[in-house]
Structures are given as C-alpha cells and as structure tokens.
Amino acid sequence: MTTLAAITLLAALVSGASAMPTAAPLPPTPDRPVTPVILDPGHGGDDLGAIVKGAQEKDIALTVALKLRDRIKTAMPVRLTRDSDVYVTLDDRMVNSVDWNGAVFVSIHLNQVRNKKLAGATVYSYGPEKRRFKRRKPRHPKVPPMPAPPSVDARESDFLASSMVKALRGDGFRAEHAKSDYYVLKNPAQPSVLVEIGYLSNPAEAARLADPAYQDKLVSTLASAIETFASERTARAETMAAAPAPAAPRL
Ligand SMILES: [Zn+2]
User: Fold this and answer.
1) CB-based burial of residue 164 (10 Å sphere; 0-12 exposed, 13-18 middle, 19+ buried)?
2) pLDDT, tens digit, 9 for 90 and up, residues 160-180
3) Could you give the CA distance from residue 127 to residue 47 in angstroms, rounded to a whole number?
4) How far apart (Å, rounded) are the C-alpha atoms in residues 190 and 73?
5) Homologous superfamily of 20-126+145-237
6) How far is the CA of 61 from the centre of ligand 1 (A)?
7) pLDDT, tens only, 208-239
8) Distance 27 CA to ligand 1 centre (A)
9) Distance from the alpha carbon of residue 122 to the mean position of ligand 1, in angstroms
C-alpha cells in the first residue's frame, strides 16, 4: 500500500484532478469526521533517530507526542501517526494525514549535531533551507519526490511555526523558526510544521528533555499554540463551507 499510496497521491497532485482539500479541511461528515490535530512522533521501531548516551530520539519524541495528545484531546480530537514503538514510513504518515483530513500536522523530533553547545527548539516550516551547521545524514529510507505544498498551506505553516516560537519564547524556552524541505513539510492537504524540541547532543539539554517535568512544561506551551491555531482554522473552514458560492462575474 505504501508505494502505491504515494504514487496515487502524487498522480492526483500532478494531474490536478484530486478531490483533496488544498486550502482547508473538508467539511466533516459522519464517515469523515474532522480531525483537527495530527501529531507525528518521528522515527520508531528499527528507525531510532538520534541516539546520545542511550537516550533515543524515537522514545522521547513518542513520550512527548503522547503527552501532547493527552493534553489536546480534552479540547479537540487528535490522531497520532504512531502511538507505540513501531516504524511507519514517511509516505504512510503523509497519506494517512491526508486521509484523516487534519487541520494541522505537527511532527515531533529531536536534534543532534556535532556542536554540543547548541540548544533550544527549532520549529520548521516549508521553504528554502539556510543551514549554519552540517546536518547528520538522514536515516530515513529514500522517499518518492514530492512537490512543494500549496502556497496557502505554506503560509499557514509559517504562521503556525512563528506562533509556536513566540509561545515557546514567552514561556522561557529558547526557540527559533527555520525553513526546510523535509518530506512531511510538503503535506499537500494541511499546514504542517516539524518541531525539533531540543538538542540531544547538548548534555544539559538532553537531561532536561528526559525530565518529565520539563516535558510537561514544553507540552503545555506547544498544546496552547496548536489548540489556538487548530480551532481558528477549523472555524475558518466551517465559515467557508457555510458561505454561499461566489456569484458568477457579470459580463
Ligand atoms: Zn528525527
């Protein structure tokens, strides 16, 4: 299903004949309830992600994503691309998120670089990348090429990323907004961001990231930013769905 799904997705995008939403989630129906928030804990299973002194990116990303889900689900429905230690391919994550009709897609990762002093969260949205340091080689297997996301979603992704950075800084976290062409940021159906919640390569930050109290504080800030964005976006989609079709232009 994986490759076929990706090919189908790409074919639909290229042909422009897709019924997929490009500007907002589809109106909910009984068999297609709206799923405002999709959380995507990176890696899983045999794909460990970053590992520093026994601390594994896949584990901390999952723990934080589960905490985020528990915090957000009291306000709105949430789905996870994985909720246990299993490997899910990048294109399955993408295809599922399109199928689930999300209002927002948030991928959770942890950073690892050679410079042990770098610290803080980085929130990525789609765009040309400016790298100040060498990135370790991605461990993901090769994925099919994906076109850039629709510009309306890219704008919303920028808005969400900067809102998250503002919220994090407001709560005392170090955070920056950056651009990248990561696969999940090319989500064709919903705004998407990738949050590197901190650097495992920084020993002090690695200890914080493994601390449940620090995770809770981080989750609280991220949840507020996501909830605000998702509820506003869902409200905008409902307004658009309820609005009469624009009148034909007079000749
Ligand atoms: Zn990662």
Assistant:
1) buried
2) 999 999 999 999 999 999 999
3) 26
4) 19
5) Zn-dependent exopeptidases (3.40.630.40)
6) 8
7) 999 999 999 999 999 999 988 987 876 766 67
8) 32
9) 12
